[in-house]
Structure formats: structure tokens, C-alpha cells
Design goal:
Layout (H helix, E strand, L loop, with lengths): L4 E9 L8 E6 L7 H11 L4 E5 L6 E6 L4 E2 L3 H13 L7 E6 L2 E7 L4 E4 L4 E4 L4 H8 L12 E4 L3 E6 L3 H6 L4 H11 L3 E6 L9 E7 L4 E4 L3 H13 L7 E6 L7 E7 L3 E5 L1 E10 L2
Parallel strand pairs: 2-3, 4-6, 11-12, 13-15
Antiparallel strand pairs: 1-2, 1-18, 3-4, 4-5, 6-7, 7-8, 8-17, 9-10, 10-11, 12-13, 13-14, 15-16, 16-17
Helix pairs in contact: 3-5
């Protein structure tokens, strides 16, 4: 950072195209930034999350993540965006890295076209909330929700997995975001993650949308941590045929992207990325 000018990137995660996927802010040199400045930068960049890279005494790097409204412990798409950018800029040259976050120390793997990140150990929590209330918040009929469990799961951040019978229901969904906030608060989760096994792409197992108004993001285009949590849910309930699958998200808002999910001793989510913008913020 010279003369008060701080370089930043806007990077689309889970895609290799401009204007698609999930845009994340990336600030690679954040050692001298305090919390208030990081929050202001995230609010200014207006991405669902911005990642700030700092030195770590416990891992190769320490990353902090801020939505436009608040700090979050972990963000999948911003992690993919950050390490893709660092690899492209020649800052890192090894394929396996450790990342310190407020959700713990997680492994990063840089493959040929994709960045993969380990998820935290899954935590499952039953939620005592009426399906009718969830349906009202999503503005759908209760009968459009599948009979599978509605469960809060975290692999870094808690989201509420809501199974939907048909793709057409998800495509037409126009939630009442004030009611979505109420459901999130009552369930103690950050987002509602609706999914169906009916997909646009034949190679994908699930199609989803993520509603996170508590973070200042009514709809997150393509979500790493929520897809990791969904992977844990699908594995727990015997809904996977193998240990790898692809998930599609963002189609309804023109930000489509593909997430690769791997289930083994650790859950990993991965994807491609695209550097859409590079600039400088004047901090003076």
C-alpha cells in the first residue's frame, strides 16, 4: 500500500466467465487495516463478502471475511476467489496451503482449473420450526416442500437446508425477506438454503438458491459454505451415490455458477474463478 492507495480485486467465483458466478472482494495486503476500515471497504465494494489477507502465526495466511453489514467467520466463494487471485498473480506457487480463519485452520488445494477448500467439521442441529412458516417466508405452498428433514448444518457457517420437490418451485420463488429474517433468527442460522434434485445441467446433482438477508445479502449467487453444509446433509441422510458431485446455483438471478463438492474424511468445495476487476481504494 503506497500513498494511501490500497489495491483490491473483484473476482467472480465458481465460474470462468465475466458477469457470472459470485463476485467477491479481495484485498491481498490487509496487515495494517483495522476492523472498522475492513468493514467500510466491504460496505463500499458491495460484494456479498470481501476477503482480507493477513499474515498468520498458525498457517500460511490468515483470512477475515466481511459482508456489507458484518464480519462472518468463513466464506467459501471469497476463499476460492482469493487463492485463485494469489495463484494468478504468482504470490503462491505451491499446491497445498493452510488458511487460518475464525472458523479454524483449513486446507486449500490449488488444482489445474479449480481451487478447493476444506470445510470445518459438520455440525448438525434439529430445528423446531413449522414448515408452514418456512413456506410463508418463501411465498410457496407448504406441499411444495419435500418430506426430507429440514435441518440446520454448519461446515463453517450455519444454514438451514430446505428440500424442495420441483425445480419450477425454486425458479419462481420470490421470498418475503423480512419473514426470511425471522425464520433465520428463530432457527439461529445465517441463511435459508433451498435445494432440489431437479437440475438445469444433467451433470449436476442439485440446484439451489441461498437467501441471507441477515448478512445484508437477500440472495447470494453461488455459495461455498452452504454447499459444503448441504454436502454433509446429503451424506448423513444417504442421498449421495458417490463421494463427488456438482451443484448449480445462481441461475435465477443471472449469476450462474458450478460448485464441485467432495465428501471424504473432510468435506471440500471447489470451483473456478475469474478476475473481473482490479483497482485501488484511496484510504486518505
Amino acid at each position: 500500500m503506497n500513498d494511501g492507495m490500497l489495491p483490491f480485486y473483484i473476482v467472480n467465483a465458481f465460474t470462468n466467465k465475466p458477469f457470472k458466478g459470485n463476485p467477491a472482494g479481495v484485498v491481498l495486503d490487509a496487515n495494517d487495516l483495522d476492523e472498522k476500515i475492513m468493514q467500510r471497504i466491504a460496505s463500499q465494494l458491495k460484494c456479498s463478502e470481501t476477503a482480507f489477507v493477513m499474515k498468520s502465526n498458525k498457517a500460511d495466511y490468515f483470512l477475515r471475511f466481511f459482508s456489507p453489514l458484518k464480519e462472518v467467520e468463513l466464506c467459501g466463494h471469497a476463499t476460492i476467489a482469493t487463492f485463485y487471485t494469489m495463484a494468478k498473480e504468482g504470490i503462491i506457487r505451491k499446491n497445498k496451503i493452510k488458511m487460518e480463519t475464525k472458523a479454524g485452520i483449513l486446507g486449500i488445494e490449488i488444482r489445474e482449473n479449480e481451487i478447493f477448500m476444506e470445510q470445518a467439521e459438520p455440525i448438525f442441529r434439529d430445528v423446531d420450526i413449522r414448515r408452514k412458516k418456512i413456506a410463508d417466508a418463501l411465498r410457496i405452498e407448504e406441499k411444495e416442500i419435500d418430506d426430507l428433514p429440514i435441518e440446520a448444518v454448519s461446515t463453517g457457517l450455519f444454514s438451514l437446508n430446505i428440500p424442495i420437490k420441483h425445480l419450477s418451485t425454486i425458479q419462481k420463488m420470490e421470498p418475503d425477506f423480512e419473514k426470511v429474517k425471522e425464520v433465520c433468527k428463530e432457527s439461529n442460522v445465517g441463511a435459508l438454503f433451498v435445494f432440489t434434485f431437479e437440475t438445469v445441467n444433467k451433470e449436476c446433482l442439485v440446484h439451489s438458491r441461498c437467501f441471507a438477508p441477515l448478512y445484508g445479502v437477500n440472495e447470494d449467487p453461488v455459495t461455498g459454505t452452504a454447499n459444503g453444509a448441504l454436502g454433509a446433509y446429503l451424506a448423513k441422510h444417504g442421498l449421495l451415490k458417490g463421494n463427488k458431485y456438482k451443484a448449480e446455483q445462481g441461475y435465477e438471478i443471472g449469476k450462474e455458477g458450478i460448485v464441485s463438492v467432495e465428501i471424504s474424511d473432510k468435506i471440500k468445495v471447489g470451483g473456478e474463478a475469474y478476475i473481473a476487476m482490479k483497482g485501488k481504494i484511496n484510504l486518505e
